[in-house]
Specification:
This protein has 79 residues and is α+β, with helices and mostly antiparallel strands. The chain has a single domain, classed as Arc Repressor Mutant, subunit A (Orthogonal Bundle). It is 67% helix and 13% strand. The chain has 5 helices and 3 strands; from the N terminus they run ααβααββα. The chain has a 3-stranded antiparallel beta sheet with strand order 1-3-2. β2 and β3 form a beta hairpin. It starts with a helix and ends with a helix.
């Protein structure tokens, strides 16, 4: 878990994306980019990294936190 916390907190945009999905529950990539004020290709890269770590999952065209992602988001939020 500590390794994942370091992975997320080591990049502000990863942390922001996780927090955004924590509060909004599910968003598509375009809405993530708009809310985060970053380019869509950057969002796609972060999403790919977080899916690989099993922190978020894709359902149709939207992304949402996995159970692990929810736990991690709460821990990071409390730091």
């Amino acid at each position: 878990m500590e390794e994942l916390i370091g992975f997320v907190t080591g990049n502000k945009n990863r942390q922001k994306l996780l927090a955004l999905l924590g509060s909004k529950h599910q968003l598509d990539a375009s809405k993530l980019a708009k809310n985060m004020h970053i380019a869509r290709p950057s969002v796609d890269k972060i999403v790919e990294e977080l899916i690989e770590k099993e922190l978020i999952e894709q359902e149709c065209d939207v992304y949402k936190l996995t159970e692990l992602g929810e736990t991690l988001e709460r821990k990071v939020h409390n730091i």
